[in-house]
Amino acid sequence: MLAWTDPPGSLSTQKKLVNDLDLVVTGPSGTVYRGNSSASGDRLNNVEGIVIDQPPIGQYHVAVRGYNVPIGSQPYALAVAGSLGSEAALTLTKRATPSQEAVPGGLITYTLALSADQPLAKSITLTDTLPLHTSFVSASDGGTLSGPMITWTIPSLAADTTVTRTLVARVDQATGNAVVIVNAQYGASDGTNPPVDGSPVNVALKSVVSASERKVYLPLVAR
C-alpha cells in the first residue's frame, strides 16, 4: 500500500490529484503489478494498493515512481503485509558409529540428523552415498538403494524439529589397514530452498594383526 498527503488542488480543475505517484511491483518471474490494478497507473487517487494472491516464492522489487510531481518533493508512506520471511535454512549433520576406528568386515552405522529453522510443508529428499570400500547392509525408515546412493523421502518438517535416518554399511573384508573410510556425499533438498550438504565423516581402519604375525620368538639362552 502506498499513500501520500497530496498538496491542495485548484477548485477550478476537474482533476483534483496534484502530485501523482505510482506504485509498481515486479515479481520474481518478471511479472509487473501496478497500483489499484491500473494498466498504466492510477491518475485519480493518492492511495494505491497491490494484492498478490498466492505469490510465487522469490525476490520482489518495489518501486515508487513520480509520474507527475509539479509541486515540490512528495513524501509518502509505504506498507507491506502478508506472510513474509526469509528462505528456510536446512541443517544436516552426520555421525558414525564407531566414530574413529572400524575393522575390515565390520559394520559402520551412519546417523543423519536433519532440521530446519522454518516449517517445510513440501517433501524433502535426503540422500547418502555408500563410501568406497563398503557395501550396503540396511537403511532405516524406508530408505531405498539405487546404485551407491540411498534416498529417503521426508513428507514434511516442523520448525526446530530434528529427524534422523540411519545407514548401515559393511567394510570390505579385503580392505587394507592404511585405508580411511570417507563418507562425504550426502545432502538434503526440498526443491525450493537452497540445498544443504554435510561435512565429510571419516573413519579409519584399525590395524589387525594375523595369527602368524602374533608369534613371538625368544632367543635360546644356554649356560
Write a concise synopsis of the structure shown.
It is built from no helices and 18 strands. By secondary structure, it is an all-beta fold. It folds into 2 domains: 2-78, Jelly Rolls, CATH 2.60.120.380; 90-205, Immunoglobulin-like.
Q: Round the Cα radius of gyration to an integer and report it.
A: 32 Å
Number of domains: 2
Helix content: under 10%
Beta-strand percentage range: 35-45%
Structural class designation: mainly beta
CATH fold annotation of the largest domain: Immunoglobulin-like
Largest sheet: 5 strands, antiparallel
Order of the strands making up the biggest sheet: 12-13-10-16-17
Between the first and last Cα atoms, what is the distance in angstroms?
Answer: 108 Å
The number of helical runs is: 0
The general outline is rod-shaped
- Taken in chain order, the helices and strands follow as EEEEEEEEEEEEEEEEEE
Mean pLDDT: 89
CATH architecture of the largest domain: Sandwich
Number of strands: 18
Residue ranges: pLDDT <50 for 5 or more in a row? Answer: none
CATH class of the largest domain: Mainly Beta
Description of the structure:
The protein is mostly beta strands. It has two domains: 2-78, Jelly Rolls, CATH 2.60.120.380; 90-205, Immunoglobulin-like, CATH 2.60.40.740. Helices cover 0% and strands 40% of the residues. It contains no helices and 18 strands. It has a five-stranded antiparallel β-sheet, with no helix packed on it. The protein has a four-stranded antiparallel β-sheet with strand order 7-9-14-11, with no helix packed on it. A three-stranded antiparallel β-sheet has the order 4-1-6, with no helix packed on it. Strand 16 (186-189) and strand 17 (196-197) form a beta hairpin. It is rod-shaped, with a radius of gyration of 32 Å. The termini are far apart. The model has no long low-confidence stretch (mean pLDDT 89).
